[in-house]
Each structure stands twice: as structure tokens, then as C-alpha cells.
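User: Please predict the structure of the protein below. I'd like the answer in C-alpha cell form so I can feed it into my own downstream comparison script.

Assistant: Understood. Taking the following sequence of 381 residues as input:
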Amino acid sequence: MIERTLSLKAQSLLQQYPIVSISGPRQSGKTTFSKLFASQYNYVNLELPDIRRFASSDPRSFLDSYSNRVILDEVQNVPELFSYLQVHTDERNQPGQYILTGSQNFLLMEKITQSLAGRVALLTLLPLSYFELPKKPSVENFIYSGGYPRLINTGIAPEDFFPTYIQTYVERDVRQLLQIQNLTLFQNFLYLLAGRAGQVFNASSLGNELGVSGQTVESWMSVLEASYIVFRLQPYFKNFNKRITKSPKLYFYDTGLLSHLLGIRSETDLQLHFARGAIYENFVILEIMKELLNQGKRPQLYYWRDSNQNEVDLLIQQGLQLKAIEIKAGKTINSEFFKGLNYFHKLVPDADLNLVYNGNELQKRSDCTIYPMHQINSIIS
């Protein structure tokens, strides 16, 4: 069993808050993680129909039965429980009463915001980070396999794992939240999104290709974002003029799923794929996001682009410090790699400049630090 980095933060927060919430994609290991870092807690699975009926029909009796030191798994299935949890935890006034897990972020967050604000510590558990693996594969191998724990722990081939994952989890969430009848059309949407990873998101353009409205695309996107399938990286335009791009860019929460949707089945496929640069970019941004989330922090990640196509792939706001990061799939450092960083540095002289590339050498230059991809966790350490 691979120890998760987030466990230290989760154990600490359990001593401070009556409730700790852990959200994340289906199959990211939330249940196993909760049972390990809170091994003395009772476990209740609210996906089981009889347990769900009990909690829904008689929440008072349910919480009397499970009154303290309890893991409530997939708690968004019983939204009426949240108000009773508020009263119950306020009456007891003790830290560490409940651990809540959920796989549908906006359902979970909506109820937490309404009923449990100030009583709950919020954590996110994504699939395994490259840096959590005790025995690390090549970066390329990890990119096309992804970080889902079951795939890594059991050795399931990605081409066997992901079709089942899409059918069992992604499509189920879609049916539950949107009641989509034409799943084939939605699958086409998923494949189109994969082809646009690393690009500026345009709902109207996607809708035109699919023959649906931009509003429909946005509603589908909301489900994929809430289910931790995709995320949008927002542009950074603080203190800049109107010539800055203000639309978000699209990325996936797991590069294995992204690679599967793009037809990548091996390291060789990855090296030859037309979207290779975007996939590596997705990997780096995602791994930095995981590192921050595993520290219990809310990632403040952005990109920057102006109307002349000057661009920086990733900006990290850490307090008053702004880190600018350019990401390249090449193994040999080229002077062209620094073009976007140098331009940005003229506009923001105090920005910390960093280049990530697919080589092996860490270099500290006077104006920029160069990181190989297998050491990107050092950027935010």
C-alpha cells in the first residue's frame, strides 16, 4: 500500500476541526486513505442502498447510531444529512468527529458551504503523484499510465482500466447529474476535449463541432469538473492591460485518462503523438497541483498570454511571490525555450523564472532555474 503524502495534513486537521472533508475523483483512493489515516474510526458507505435509506429517512437516528469518530463515504448521496451534522457536531463541540468523503465536488461543496462552514477542513485527494511512488517509473511511463491507485497497485494495463473507468464512473455521474440520453454524443465530447488539452477553452467552437449549444457544452463541462475529470486553468491578468487573453485553458486531472482518450498505448506512442507538448504540459501542471493539495494548500495556478501570443505556461502565486514556469517536452535546452519567460520578466521584473524540460540536469542560472521533469516537486518545496 502506497502511503499518501496528504495523510500528515489530514491527521493534523483532525485534531483541530470537528469534520474533515476529503473530495476527489472516483477511484483516487479516498476510502483506503481515510481508513489508513483514521484507522480507529468506524466506516459507513453511503453508496449502499440500505444505509443510504436509513440516513435519508431518519437522519437523527442514523447520527445517534454513528455518533463520533466515523467515516461517512460518498456523503453527497444523502444531502439532507448535512444540516443534522451541523447541529450534532455543535452539540458535542469536539474535534475529529467525522470524516466525509465525496466524488462529486459541487454537490459536496454546495452542502458544506450551506451547512458546515467554519466546522469543516477541506482537503482534496487526487490520483497518485509521481513523487508518491516509492519505485518511480520513467516520466513517460507514468504519463500514459496515470496515477489511479488500483491501476498502479494491481498492474492493470491502462487499455483495460480506462474503458471500464469511463463506463462505470464518468458515464454514471453524467446520467445521475444531467440525465443525458445520447451517451455517444457525450463520449465524442470527451474525445474532443482530450484533443484540446493545453488549449484555450471555447465552448462555442466545441458546440459547433458536436451540433449542440455552447450552453450545453458548459453544462457538460460542469459535470466533468465536478467529477474531477477536467479542470480549467484561469488566465493571470492582474495589473495588465486589456490585450491579455482572459479565457481559461483546459487540462485533465489524470494524464493516463488523457493519453487513453488520445489513443496513446505506449511510451513510443507518446513520443510520436501530435499533442506530445500539451500532454507534458498537463503532466507538469497537474503534478504541481498535487504537491500543493497534498500540503493542504489551495493552489493558485494560472497561465499568461497576450494578444501577440507571448505566453508563460504556468504562474504560481505563493503569497507575494509569483513563480513563472515554462514547460518544454524537449530533452535538450534551447535558447528559444526562454522566449516567453524573458518577455514576461520585462513586465514583471520580480517574478521568479523557472524552466521545466524533459532532460536530466538541474541548473541554477543567474536569471532562471532549470528543472528536469523528475524534480519538479522542488519548485514549490
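That's the full C-alpha cell string. Residues 132-380 form one domain.
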